[in-house]
């Protein structure tokens, strides 16, 4: 047998069998269905919890001996007094603060941005007093752990009541504002509906937080994890009953009650409780998210909109705070929900870079991608609100000086382009970060994008030319929004920009989109100043000195006019004789005004010149035609015949 095992054929066969055995075992394990694995997990979990029920009495005895033994050493009166101080001192201090603020309550409500102060300030005082009580007292080890969780539970329940009351007040104020403005079909729910859900949700949260405190207090006393789970499942029945009662007694818009929905939600809650007992925490939270996350987001949106209506004057000049309220609250809710779900799946913040399997990498990538996209969305809306606020605050018509108007026009020209560039940059960076989190190598993508960009650049030279030309036009400050420019056959007021073209509004109405590459030399008619020249034709017998004095007086009148004077740099003057024409002397007038104002001033100046020339007997020259002929003999004959008839006493013929 030994000699046979040493032969090469037998050795090769044995090595083949040894290698095939693990593969066969792995194949058999892979053939086990996922449902069977989940069923085994549920059985083990339920068995562990049921076994804990058998050992729970002994664990209660051990915990009691530990706790009461510590109290015996410390002293019953001292321990009772310290726990009473934790539970009562915060409420007493809050009551004193409420009495002190009672006289100033109306003044706080009337102050801008302080409508919520009467509810928020007492809650903060309660939390501070409770924390100071905990820190100022000395505690034994077991009692200290219990005291900490009690303080956390007290503060959470106080802020739950505070935030719920704030939400109800906001909804009530917003609803009253809608009714006062006569808005038909108000979207805001009534105060009765808000109070109903506030009481049920507050009861649910307070019951949950004190149940959590009780379970957390069991750990330092030596209770096993299975015993704590058993107590949690028993306390969860109370949460289940609160949710079912809220579903069946919820208010309806009409008198009919939707029993089908109530039964469906009841079964859904029972299923969630069963999943929790079976030990599938990630599936439990997924079911909770499916049911509650849309409602929580809707309530947060409703609360933000109510706050914006209530504090409209306070938030009008605080655009960043408005955006943070609008987008930040929803982004925070979704991010916290995603991170907590990742924690339930075993993807915590400390293990974001760990893990070997593809499922772990995808889970981490998805959760990280959600957070990245939410942060990018919040950043973009904050930047957008800031830029839009700058554009609203820097209206060109609001400038007091020419320099300030020019600065505001340049802001309106550059900021929209800068906003579009930032949008593209933020979107690209966010997408690349999400892909990197999913495990995709972004280096080749960036290199490939560079190659594609070069190829597109060669294939679309006109577009590249337009973009680069536009950058240099903006760099040279060649034109701004609201200025009138001429370039070749194109002219008009600059209305808007894009990365490759400019939109010109002609003074007759048509809007022309001109690529930057086709502009060429640009004539800007709205910079610094403009000179307007007027030519007049007067007769040869005109007193030019008198005409010059009249025009000078008209120029002084225009300068003193409050409507035209601020726009005149050099008033209307007569420059002298331009030339001698065939029928008139041509004189030249000129004035220097601000760009765009010369047309109105010119029209009024011409009307004043016409009236002033008429009053001073200065006539405008017009073209005339002189006709000549030999009619002297005919005239003499007619005169002779008239004289002859006069002597004869007869009437001459017509």
In short:
The chain has 654 residues and is an alpha+beta fold. It contains 20 helices and eight strands.
Account of the protein in words:
- This protein is α+β, with helices and mostly antiparallel strands and 654 residues long.
- It has 20 helices and eight strands.
- It has helices spanning 2-5, 8-30, 34-74, 76-101, 105-110, 117-136, 141-180, 191-218, 225-248, 259-278, 281-310, 312-315, 319-344, 358-393, 402-437, 442-459, 461-475, 544-560, 598-615, 632-648; strands at 484-487, 490-497, 501-505, 511-515, 523-524, 530-538, 568-580, 585-593.
- The strands form two sheets. It has a five-stranded antiparallel β-sheet with strand order 4-3-2-1-5. A three-stranded antiparallel β-sheet has the order 6-8-7.
- Helix 3 packs across helix 9 (225-248), helix 8 runs antiparallel to helix 9 and helix 18 (544-560) crosses helix 19.
Q: How big is the Rg?
A: 45 Å
pLDDT averaged residue by residue: 77
- Contiguous helical run count: 20
- For the termini, the CA-CA separation is 169 Å
Count of beta strands: 8
Helix content: 55-70%
The low-confidence parts are 26-32, 349-355
Which structural class is indicated by helix and strand composition? Answer: alpha+beta
Order of helices and strands: HHHHHHHHHHHHHHHHHEEEEEEHEEHH
Strand order, sheet with most strands: 4-3-2-1-5
Note the overall shape.
elongated
- Quaternary structure type: single chain
């Amino acid at each position: 047998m030994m000699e046979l095992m040493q032969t090469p054929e037998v050795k090769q066969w044995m090595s083949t069998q040894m290698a095939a055995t693990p593969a066969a075992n792995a194949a058999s394990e892979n053939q086990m269905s996922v449902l069977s694995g989940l069923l085994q997990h549920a059985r083990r979990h339920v068995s562990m919890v049921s076994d804990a029920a058998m050992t729970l009495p002994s664990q209660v005895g051990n915990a009691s001996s530990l706790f009461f033994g510590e109290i015996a050493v410390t002293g019953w009166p001292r321990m009772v007094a310290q726990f009473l101080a934790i539970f009562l001192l915060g409420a007493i201090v809050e009551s004193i603060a409420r009495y002190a603020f009672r006289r100033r309550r109306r003044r706080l409500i009337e102050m801008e941005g302080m409508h919520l102060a009467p509810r928020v300030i007492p809650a903060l005082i309660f939390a501070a007093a409770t924390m100071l009580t905990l820190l100022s007292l000395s505690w034994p080890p077991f009692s200290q752990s219990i005291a900490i969780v009690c303080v956390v539970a007290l503060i959470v329940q106080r802020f739950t009541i505070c935030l719920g009351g704030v939400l109800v007040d906001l909804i009530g104020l917003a609803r009253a504002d809608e009714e006062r403005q006569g808005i038909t079909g108000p979207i805001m729910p009534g105060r009765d509906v808000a109070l109903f859900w506030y009481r049920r949700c507050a009861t649910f949260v307070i019951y949950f937080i004190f149940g959590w405190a009780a379970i957390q207090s069991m750990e330092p006393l030596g209770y096993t994890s299975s015993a704590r789970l058993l107590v949690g499942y028993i306390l969860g029945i109370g949460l289940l009953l609160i949710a079912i009662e809220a579903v069946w007694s919820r208010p309806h818009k009409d008198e009919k009650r939707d029993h089908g929905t109530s039964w469906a939600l009841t079964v859904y809650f029972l299923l969630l409780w069963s999943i929790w007992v079976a030990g599938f925490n990630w599936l439990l939270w997924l079911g909770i998210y499916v049911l509650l996350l849309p409602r929580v987001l809707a309530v947060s949106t409703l609360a933000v909109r109510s706050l914006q209506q209530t504090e409209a004057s306070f938030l009008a000049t605080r655009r960043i705070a408005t955006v943070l309220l609008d987008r930040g609250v929803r982004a925070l809710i979704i991010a916290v929900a995603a991170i907590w779900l990742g924690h339930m799946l075993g993807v915590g913040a400390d293990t974001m870079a760990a893990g070997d399997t593809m499922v772990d990498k995808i889970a981490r990538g998805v959760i990280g991608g959600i957070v990245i996209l939410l942060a990018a969305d919040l950043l973009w809306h904050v930047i957008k609100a800031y830029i839009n606020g700058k554009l609203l605050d820097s209206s060109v018509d609001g400038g007091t000086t020419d320099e300030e108007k020019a600065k505001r026009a340049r802001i309106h020209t550059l900021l929209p382009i800068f906003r579009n560039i930032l949008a593209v940059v933020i979107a690209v960076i966010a997408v690349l970060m999400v892909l990197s989190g999913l495990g995709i190598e972004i280096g080749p993508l960036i290199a490939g994008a560079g190659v594609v960009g070069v190829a597109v650049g060669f294939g679309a030279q006109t577009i590249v030319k337009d973009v680069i030309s536009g950058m240099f036009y903006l760099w040279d400050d060649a034109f701004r929004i609201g200025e009138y420019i001429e370039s070749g056959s194109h002219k008009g007021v600059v209305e808007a920009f894009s990365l490759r073209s400019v939109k010109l509004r002609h003074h007759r109405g048509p809007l022309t989109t001109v690529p930057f590459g086709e502009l060429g030399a640009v004539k800007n008619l709205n910079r610094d100043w403009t000179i307007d020249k007027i030519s007049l034709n007067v007769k040869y017998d005109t007193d030019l000195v008198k005409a010059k004095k009249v025009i000078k007086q008209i120029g002084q009148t225009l300068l003193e006019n409050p409507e035209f004077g601020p726009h005149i740099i050099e008033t209307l003057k007569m420059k002298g004789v331009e030339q001698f024409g065939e029928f008139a002397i041509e004189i030249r007038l000129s004035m220097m005004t601000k760009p765009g104002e010369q047309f109105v001033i010119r029209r009024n100046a011409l009307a004043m010149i016409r009236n002033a020339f008429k009053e001073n007997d200065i006539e405008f020259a017009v073209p005339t035609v002189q006709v000549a002929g030999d009619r002297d003999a005919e005239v003499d004959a007619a005169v002779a015949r008239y004289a002859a008839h006069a002597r004869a006493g007869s009437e001459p013929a017509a």
